[in-house]
């Protein structure tokens, strides 16, 4: 009877001990896994912060270059749009004139350029719509830009 009690007690303690051992083992494995995972994560974070610095720098530089190009292209497009179509224009001698006596295209109001430098100073052309214009007085005689401005001032003032 006594030996049976001792046996069952010993069995109980043995079970208890193995249970505790199992719990402790699971705990150690679990904690060490957790620590390993945590340190692994920290290592990974440290690596992604420290090692690929040139990579981050490259990405930032490329993004800045893209932004710069985008802004430049946008600026170029806005400057290529019809310049100041809101300005007041006066039609005379076959072209438009603004209040600074600059020549403007009759079709698109773009600034006119001298068509053939040194040859015919009465010919002008629009680089926007590729139209040629000739400065002519009301009688059909060719006018240079300076002559036309002189006549225009006479007309506007007198
Ligand atoms: Zn034009």
Outline the structure in words.
With 158 residues, the protein is mainly α. The chain folds into 2 domains: 2-80; 90-157, no CATH class. The chain is built from 3 helices and 6 strands. It has helices spanning 2-50, 53-80, 145-157, and strands at 90-92, 95-97, 103-104, 112-114, 123-126, 132-134. The strands form 2 sheets. A 3-stranded antiparallel beta sheet has the order 1-2-3, with no helix packed on it. Strands 4-5-6 form a 3-stranded antiparallel beta sheet, with no helix packed on it. Strand 2 (95-97) and strand 3 form a beta hairpin. The longest helix has 49 residues, at 2-50. The protein is rod-shaped and about 145 Å long. The relative contact order is 0.07. Zinc ion binds at residues 105, 107-108, 110, 126, 128-129, 131. The site of zinc ion has 8 residues, from loops.
In percent terms, what proportion of residues is strand?
5-15%
**Parts with pLDDT < 50 across at least 5 consecutive residues:** none
Major β-sheet annotation: 3 strands, antiparallel
Helix content range of the residues, please? 55-70%
Radius of gyration: 45 Å
Number of helices: 3
Q: How many discrete structural domains?
A: 2
Distinct ligands: zinc ion
Gap from first CA to last CA: 142 Å
Q: In what order do the strands lie side by side in the largest sheet? A: 1-2-3
Give the overall shape. Answer: rod-shaped
**Which structural class do you get from the secondary structure elements?**
mainly alpha
Roughly what is the average pLDDT, rounded to an integer?
81
Count of beta strands = 6
State the order of secondary-structure elements, H for helix, E for strand.
HHEEEEEEH
């Amino acid at each position: 009877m006594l030996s049976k009690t001792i046996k069952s007690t010993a069995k109980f303690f043995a079970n208890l001990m193995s249970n505790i051992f199992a719990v402790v083992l699971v705990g150690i494995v679990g904690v060490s896994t957790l620590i390993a995972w945590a340190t692994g994560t920290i290592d990974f974070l440290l690596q992604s912060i420290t090692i690929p610095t040139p990579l981050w720098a490259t990405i930032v530089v490329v993004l800045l270059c893209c932004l710069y190009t985008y802004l430049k292209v946008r600026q170029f497009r806005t400057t290529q749009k019809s310049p100041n179509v809101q300005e007041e224009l006066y039609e005379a001698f076959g072209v438009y004139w603004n209040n600074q006596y600059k020549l403007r295209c009759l079709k698109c109001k773009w600034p006119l350029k001298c068509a053939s430098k040194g040859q015919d100073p009465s010919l002008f052309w629009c680089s926007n719509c590729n139209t040629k214009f000739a400065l002519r007085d009301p009688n059909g005689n060719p006018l240079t830009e300076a002559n036309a401005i002189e006549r225009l001032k006479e007309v506007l003032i007198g």
